[in-house]
Write a structure and sequence with these properties.
Helices cover about 40% and strands about 25% of the residues. α2 packs parallel to α6.
């Protein structure tokens, strides 16, 4: 059954469980934050891609108003709580400044492929080593899901949105595994070339071959 949900379209993809900090300055979204704080409302962030509000989005809850400015602007902390599909977009919720839409909660199959997960964990560790992000890897929960690392895999916004469209963790695992297998060799070669550039012009101690 569909329900009316306030909407805050953004040119990015937000995943369930993700913590997102936002600076709110437009009057319509200042009103939205006020309503969320006063009435306990949640709101949706559907991705705005290629000039269009996409049908899949993430429902968010207001965690905290971190700072309220004299101008009415604010800094807020939010967190994704689930996915929805948008059936009808309303440019304005009746009596409000902000947009809304009739949405329906999307089910999610969290079952994973243990073997595929093991391979992904290994590849993510290699990726983070290449990028110098090992400290970030250490902060992840032991049984992290694809959504927990998706922003740090070098995916395009369109690829991240594709993850939202997939209803099963095993399908998301397959997409990420294929992506990592493709991107890691490229990154390693890029780092090798960068190292050669850094060494160019330096005095190097080289041992010539013996004939």
């Amino acid at each position: 059954m569909s329900r009316l949900l306030p909407l805050f379209p953004l040119n990015l993809v937000v995943f369930p469980g993700e913590r997102l900090n936002l600076h709110i300055f437009e009057p319509r979204y200042r009103q939205l934050v006020h309503d969320c704080a006063e009435e306990g409302l949640t709101f949706g962030i559907p991705a705005f891609l290629n000039g269009t509000v996409q049908p899949i989005g993430t429902e968010m809850r207001l965690v905290k108003i971190e700072k309220l400015y004299d101008t009415g602007e604010s800094d807020i902390r939010t967190q994704g709580v689930g996915l929805f599909t948008l059936h009808e977009l309303l440019p304005q919720v009746p009596g409000k400044l902000y947009a809304g839409g009739y949405v329906e909660e999307l089910p999610d199959d969290a079952h994973e492929d243990p073997e595929l997960r093991r391979h992904i964990v290994e590849l993510v560790a290699q990726l983070y080593d290449v990028l110098g992000l090992r400290p970030l890897l250490l902060t992840l929960p032991p049984h992290y899901r694809v959504f927990d690392v998706a922003h740090h895999l070098g995916l395009s916004t369109e690829q991240e949105y594709r993850l939202l469209e997939l209803r099963a963790e095993t399908d998301r695992q397959a997409l990420v595994y294929e992506h990592l297998q493709q991107v890691l060799p490229v990154l390693r070669e890029t780092e090798r070339l960068k190292e050669r550039v850094r060494q160019n012009g330096h005095f190097r101690h080289l041992t010539p071959p013996s004939f």
